[in-house]
Amino acid sequence: LPGLVLAAMGVPEVHLVESDRRKAQFLREAARRMGLAGVTVHPVRIETLSLAVDVVTARALAPLVQLVPLARPLLRAGGRLVLLKGRGVDAELTALGEVGTMRVELHPSLADPEGRVLVLQEVASSAP
Q1: Could you give the angle at which helices 64-71 and 89-96 cross, rounded to 10 degrees?
Q2: Which tens digit of pLDDT belongs to each residue from 54-76?
Q3: Where are the domains of the chain?
């Protein structure tokens, strides 16, 4: 659902990934009724998707230790993971451990006093 909100805010191209075909059909219909022509719904598992995007967002998909390895291959150079996380985000970051070339930012959620918005951004390597 974060992708539908982004599309409604004017992001011209949004890819939604939903492996449950019923939910994927709902997303297609919602995008159609909202007049969001730039929305593409992929009724597949994220592991099978081959896209290169600037931003991957997710809500309630998986813990970071599982989500980051799934989403990271979809990011272009300099891309960002923008994830809506609950109060356990600090423990999830600890469990995730080293994120290599990703910068980590935590922002307070405007919708949930215990929630946080986690932004992980790929940083270009300075190695020659």
Answers
A1: 60
A2: 999 987 788 888 888 898 899 98
A3: 1-48, 52-128
Give, as one character, the DSSP assignment of residue 34: T
Which burial class, exposed, middle or buried, applies to 22 when counting CB atoms under 10 A from its CB (0-12, 13-18, 19+)?
A: exposed
**Selection from 44, 49, 43, 11 nearest residue 24 by Cα:** 43
- CB under 8 Å to 121, separation ≥6 — which residues? 78, 79, 80, 81, 102, 103, 105
Mean pLDDT computed over 98-122: 84
Length of the chain: 128
| pTM of the shown model | 0.80
Q: In the CATH hierarchy, which top-level class contains the domain 52-128?
A: alpha beta
Query: Tokens standing for 5?
Result: 């909100």
